[in-house]
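FAQ

Q: What does a record look like?
A: Structure on top, sequence underneath. For example:
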């Protein structure tokens, strides 16, 4: 059964379109190579897919530039000159933009103001006032953010401090933990560090050896 004819129109499915492009590109490159070898022709192919992928084929022992130069000489065109002029025009445009930006920066710093009339000076003043307003808003936002972060850290520390105190008080009241008795005045004590209860817990043990003290403290 022979191959059916394919309608020549854009393939809507992107995957099928890319597969077809790859197959037919390889076929065209193969035919170009055969033509170059069989007929001693200089062939150059440039292809750009729908996904912006660049592919090219050039006959052996030659370059794309050589073929383009020969094409220009044959048809009397000057592609490089046209391209160079476009690049020069783009360069001049970029230089003008750069000079305007530099002049604007200098004027915002209070320089190069002699050539400005009253209207231009008023416009410059308005721009600087607007810029100053934006800078102030940003500064206040940064200050507020840093203040909120500091307050959050303080609240976290206060919560941790309260939890530690609550934990110490709970352990002191728990019967399974003994409270160390002061051997001199028979009073219970809780260790404090810089005015804050530390993680020092006291455990009361019954000595089994006559040389052991009445209480043993563990940290």
């Amino acid at each position: 059964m022979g191959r059916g004819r394919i309608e020549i129109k854009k393939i809507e499915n992107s995957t099928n379109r890319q597969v077809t492009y790859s197959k037919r590109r390889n076929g065209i490159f193969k035919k170009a190579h055969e033509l170059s070898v069989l007929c001693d022709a200089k062939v150059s192919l440039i292809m750009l897919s729908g996904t912006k992928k660049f592919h090219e084929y050039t006959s052996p022992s030659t370059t794309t530039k050589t073929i383009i130069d020969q094409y220009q000489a044959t048809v009397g065109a000057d592609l490089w000159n046209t391209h160079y002029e476009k690049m020069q025009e783009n360069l001049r445009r970029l230089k003008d933009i750069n000079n305007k930006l530099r002049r604007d920066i200098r004027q915002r710093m209070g320089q190069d103001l002699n050539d400005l009339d009253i209207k231009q000076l008023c416009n410059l003043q308005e721009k600087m006032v607007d810029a100053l307003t934006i800078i102030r808003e940003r500064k206040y936002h940064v200050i507020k953010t840093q203040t909120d972060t500091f307050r959050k850290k303080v609240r976290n520390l206060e919560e941790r401090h309260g939890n530690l105190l609550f934990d110490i008080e709970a352990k002191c009241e728990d019967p399974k933990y003994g409270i160390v008795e002061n051997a001199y005045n028979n009073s219970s004590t809780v260790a404090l560090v810089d005015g804050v209860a530390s993680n020092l817990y006291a455990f009361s043990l019954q000595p089994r050896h006559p040389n052991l003290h009445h209480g043993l403290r563990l940290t």
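Q: Is there anything notable about this one?
A: The two ends are 92 Å apart (CA to CA).
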